[in-house]
Amino acid sequence: MANNLFNMSEAASIGIHSMVFIAKSDGKVNVNKLAEEFNFSKHHVAKVLQRLNKFDMLGSTRGPSGGFYLKVEPNDISLLDIYEAIEGKLPNMKCPMGYEHCPFKKCLLGTIVNDMSKQFKEYLNEKTLQYYLDNNY
Length: 137
What we know:
CATH class: Mainly Alpha
Structural class: mainly alpha
Strand content: 5-15%
Shape: elongated
């Protein structure tokens, strides 16, 4: 049973870092450059970028001068869009641990888990790629 507490997988980290790097680049960026820049596995970077390509956030060209480029304006792509393209939609659950049945009258964890998950989702949604271009990252 999964909970909706903050989770950032390596794939989501690769996606977010790569998308900001590509947005900051003047042209196409190849998998080798991203893998080298962030010390990620070349294979894992390629897999993540292909997933983002399927969601039409990135385009790609093959060949020696090929690479990945943004297909959408930086202001129209949030970190939440990237995260959810890789991890799937962040769930909205009544129980922070995802349990269907609880014998207690009140949640033992209070609202902290749901509050943290909501704040995480809001943060990712507020930050677009344009934010990272405008703020000199």
